[in-house]
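May I ask you to review the protein record following this short note?
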Amino acid sequence: MLFGWQAVQRSGERASGARGPLPRVDPQGLPTPQAAERVERALAARTASYNGSMLAQRTLKSLTRAVGVGVHGGHRVELTLRPAPSDSGIVFRRVDLPQPVNIAVRSDSVCDTRMATALSPGGDPGAPKVNTVEHLLSACAGLGIDNLMIDITAEEVPILDGSAASFVFLLQSAGIELQDAPKRFLRMRRTIEVREGEGASLKWARLEPFDGYKLTFEIDFDHPAVNQTGQHVVFDMGSGQYKREIARARTFGFTRDVEMMRSRGLGLGGSLDNVVVVDDYKVLNSDGLRYGDEFAKHKILDAIGDLYVIGHPLIGAYSAFKSGHALNSKLVRAVLADPSCYDIVSFDDASTAPAGLADLAPAW
């Protein structure tokens, strides 16, 4: 997908009327050396408040804020991420409305999957909504955040640098706290697959049993710039490398799609600061790609966020070919429609959890 060309606020710059300090990030969405050093010192100085062996739920230690623009609507938006009680899940709160509206992150809240994932109460397309939630939810999944209240002042999550890296930095800046309640996983017991199309138009997505959480994605774009990159990626969430290997992959789009998107009121907040833009032959961003397989890695980033609306961290293997938000949502619904294909598990002793899951996001 491609977005509009007008200038937008660069990640880390203060928008007019912003409240509170913003973490300093460079145009690639990474913390400046000074900010990163401060965060690392703070994280190293903190210790977990919960000393039991249970694999526990996680929330933030303190609130944190961000200001940016929505990539599609182009409107200024403020986010305030707050700690939340055990078993409350992740909830968006539209505080810009005369009466604030809570929108829970759950499968039946999904109301639109065209170009991004949107949520509304009960999935009602006419109700207040929050759009483009997948990058923030991907960061929450990558850091093991179970409970979070997200105040938002518009209907679209800010795009920031187009990846999940800035959200990871915000969440870690606030600190992550263990809670006195068990983390509950959805563990796949048998394979569920959804498919659409056939022949050259075939695409599919699948969840199957696996002792951990692994994602495999293959893209298939008939484009010279994309064909020069890796189009098949396998990532094991238990490796602890989400921040390094996945979070920095940016959304991307093609110049040939800009007129169509603008006619639909989409892409109005996009720029070379937050989108990898590709013309008929090459990547237009002066700094090039962050990974040799950034296109495929961004699809995994999106999938991690899309799947998090299932309401629990996953124990299973996700694999997909040419999938997107709509097919990922269809897969989540298919899993939840068949309770015999999964169970909900927790671990009284964290050492009995699949390798890597207990250490997914250290609590400082």
